[in-house]
Predict the structure.
Amino acid sequence: MLSRTAENLFWLSRYVERAENMARLLEMGYRMALMPAAGDGNRSEWRSVLSAAGCAEGFDSANTDTTELTQATVSDYLIFNRDNPSSIINCFEYARANARAMRTAITQEMWEALNGALMELRRTAMRNLAKTDLPGFIDWVKSQGALFRGATDSTILRNDGYDFIRLGTFLERADNTARLLDVKYYVLLPETSMVGDGVDNYQWTTVLRAASSMRAFHWVYRDDYSPWRIAHFLILNPFSPRSLAHCVENITSHLERLARQYGQRQAVHSLAVDTYAILTQGDMDEIFSHGLHEFLSDCLRRYQALSSAIAETYYFGGQ
Amino acid sequence: MFNEMKMNDQVREPYRALVDWMDATGPDVLAQKRLEAETLFRKIGITFAVYGEGGDPERLIPFDLIPRIFTAAEWRKLERGVKQRARALNTFLYDVYHNAEIIRAGIVPADLVYRNAAFEPAVIGIDPPRRVYSHIVGVDVVRVSPDEFYVLEDNCRTPSGVSYMLENREIMMRMFPELFSKLRIEPVDSYPDQLLKTLKSIAPRKCENDPNIVVLTPGAMNSAYYEHSFLADQMGVELVEGQDLFVSEGRVYMRTTRGPERVDVIYRRIDDDFIDPLCFRPDSVLGVPGLMNVYRSGGVAICSAPGAGVADDKAIYTYVPDMIRFYLGQEPILNNVPTWKCARQDDLKYVLEHLPELVVKEVHGSGGYGMLVGPASTKEECATYAERIKANPSDFIAQPTLSLSACPTFVESGIAPRHVDFRPFCLVGDDIRLTPGGLTRVALREGSLVVNSSQGGGVKDTWIMAE
C-alpha cells in the first residue's frame, strides 16, 4: 500500500485512541472530585488529570495564574480547546482529516463512524452536554471510539492496512497506560503504602478507573486492591486489555504479520520482540526495587523508538 | 417552455408511474424524505467545494428528490449521438497532433487549433495507446422540446460529476425502494467496472503484465476530491497524489510500504499544466517531475491524454458537426446550439446588437464563470460586458437563449418546474461504452438557466426506463 496511506491509517487510529483516553482521564477526575477531599483538596486531582494527559504545561500557558483548576476549566481544555493538540475535538478533527486524505483505504462504515462523531462534536448541543452531564459526554466519546473500532473490526480487509491501524491503536494505548502509571506511581510505591493511613483505597482505584479496569481487576485477582496487584495488572498481566504487556504483544504480532506479508524482517521487528521480552520476563518486585518511575520512563522511550522505527521501515513521510 | 413532466395538462408517459406514486405518498412523507436524504449525503461525506468562495469547504450540492426520466427511445437517440461525438472528437485529437488533415482540408482554421492555449506542442507526433486522447467524454445536453436536443458543450479533459450519478441513485434506492421494485429503471452501477475496463485497455506499450492503475488527485482540498476517492475506491485502485509518485529509469513508480511499485496507467484528475513541472508549470507541486518523458516513450498511459483539451474548447465546439461529417461521413445525430463566433466581424456585430437576447460565454471559461445571460441581466451589465467583448472579440462566443426544458423540483413554495441540463459520461478505450444514465443538473433559482453547482445549481437522479 502507499506509504502515505499507511502513515495516515497509523495516525488515524492513534488519534481515536487518544480521544478515548482523554475521556477516561476526565472520568477519573470526575470521580475523584466526588470523593471527600484529601490533602490539599480536589485541586490536586484535576492537576494530575492534566499531567497524565500530558497537557499540564499547555493548560498553564493557555490560562492565567488565577484560573482555578476545576472540572469546568480542565474539561473545557481537554475537550474543546482548539489550541490543545490533544483535545478530544482536535483528535477527532485530525482523525477525520487523515481518513479523508485516504478515503479509499477505509470502509464506508469506518468513515461514517468518524465523520458522524465529528459532526456531532461540532454541534453546540455537545458543549452543553459536557457542561451539564460530563459522565454522559464521556460515555458518548467512549462509544464513538468503540463504534470506530467495531466498524474497523467487522468491515476492513485483513491486509497490511489493518495492521497499521492496530499498530497505531496499541502504541497509543501503551503510551497512555505508561504515562498514567508514571503520573500516579508515587501512589503505588510499596513504601508509601506501608505508611498505611496516608493513602486510601480510592487513590489506588483512580488508576484502575482511568484505565476502565475496575471490574476486570476483581475478576482477575478476586481480592482487595493493593499497589503491587494494580501495577501488575496494568503492566505485566497479558489478559488486561490496557496493560503494557497486552499492548506490546499486539504490536509485536502485527509487526510479525507485516513481516510475513512483505516477506521481510527488519530492525523494527527485533526492537518489538526485545520490548515484549522485558514485559513477559518482568517481575513486579524487581521493577519496584529498580524504581517504577525508571521502568516506566524506559518503556516510554521504547514506544517512541518503536514509533520512529515503524515510520522509517515503511517509508512514512515520503522517504 | 417545455415541462418534461407535463404537456397540455397531461402527465407525459415516462413520468406517469412516478406522479401516481407521489400523489399516493403525499407531501408530508416526501418532505420527511428530503430531510433524510440530506442527512445521508452529509453522513457519507459527498461534498463539493467552490473555489474562491470561502466558507464551508465541504458544502453539499443540493439534491432534489424528484428524478428526471427518459424513455428507452429517447435514450437510444441520445446514446447514438453521444457515442458518435466521442468518436469524432478523439479522431480530431489524433488528427491535429499528427497530419492535421482537417486543417489541410480547410474545415477547421489552423489558428483556432495551433494558437489555442489548450493545444499542446509537447505531444505532437506521440501515439497514445489505441490512439485515444479523451477516454471520458462528458457531453452536456439540453432539451427544448420533446424531440429537440442540443449539445451545449463537450468536456474532453476530466469531466466531473459521475460520482453524483452513482450516489444519487444509491440515495434514491435507499429512499424509495418500492419505486425501484415496481418500475424498470436501467441500473447505473456498472460504470466503475466499465471505467476500469477502459483504463486497462489503454495500457502503455512497455507494460507486459496486468496494468497497475492509479487515480491521481491534487489532494483532499480539491473541490472534486470526493469523486476522486469514490472512483478509486469503486475500481479498487490506489488514489495517489503527486508526492506519492516518482520517475526512475523511464518508468513511473509509487512509494509504498514495500518500497517502489510500478504504475502503468494514470487516471489523472489534475490539469495538463500541473502534471509535470519539468514540462509544464515549473512551480507545480501537484505533479510528477519527468512524467511526460515516460509518457512519450510509452512507459505510462495518461487518461485523459495531455493535449486533449483542444477538442473541448468553446471555439472548436462550433466545428464538431463538421468533424463528424469529415471523419465519420455521417450526419450529426445531436445538434449544436447555433453559435456566433465573435472572432468573425459579422457575428460580432450581431452579438453586440442583440446582447440582451443572447448568452455569451468566454471561449476558454468553464464552470459557468464569467458568462452573460442577456435576458437576466441589467442594461448596465450588458454594457460592461460589451466592452469586454470589444476588447478581445475572439475570446467570446454567443448563443441564443434557449428555452431549456424544466423538470418539477422541490423549492420553498412546494414543487415547481426548474430548468435542467444533462451530462452523460461516455467511455472510450478498446470500445465505446455509455452507462444508461448521467448527471441531471437543475437551476434551483426560479427562471435561472445556470445549472453549475458553483452557481447554486443542484442535482437530480436520472432514470432511463428499460424497454
Notes: Chain A touches chain B at residues 1-6, 97, 100-104, 108, 111-112, 115-116, 119, 160, 164, 258, 262, 264, 314-315, 318 (CB under 8 Å). Chain A has a mean pLDDT of 88.
